[in-house]
Write a structure and sequence with these properties.
Layout lengths: L13 H107 L1
């Protein structure tokens, strides 16, 4: 049979060192986790700030568009409408001019026929 082991009271129990190491490791992990959460929070705040700035910039751009471009677009529409009105006026004037020319040609033809009758007759 093997001799029985006798407990030596001079040696400190290994569990105490292990517990201290585990406690320190646990604290290190907690600190690391807190730092990670803090970094994540900082990034989240930064992203939120950037998003807010972008939204403000987009809104400002839309307001500037309305202030500068919208009047230009409205003016362009007005000019396009005036162009159509002028085209219609030109077509109407052309029609009236065609009628006047036709009437003048008929009068000239009648005058020529009367002149021929007088000179031949």
């Amino acid at each position: 049979m093997a001799p029985s082991r006798k407990a030596n009271s001079d040696v400190s129990p290994p569990n105490l060192i292990t517990q201290e190491a585990q406690s320190q490791t646990s604290q290190d992990l907690d600190t690391s986790a807190m730092q990670g959460l803090l970094e994540k929070h900082k990034k989240s705040v930064k992203a939120h700030t950037i998003r807010g700035k972008l939204e403000v910039a987009v809104q400002r751009d839309e307001e500037q568009f309305r202030a500068r471009r919208l009047p230009q677009v409205e003016r362009l529409c007005e000019l396009e409408q005036k162009k159509r009105q002028l085209e219609e006026a030109i077509i109407s004037s052309k029609t009236e001019l065609d009628t006047v020319i036709e009437t003048a040609v008929k009068h000239l033809q009648m005058g020529i026929e009367k002149w021929k009758e007088v000179t031949e007759g």
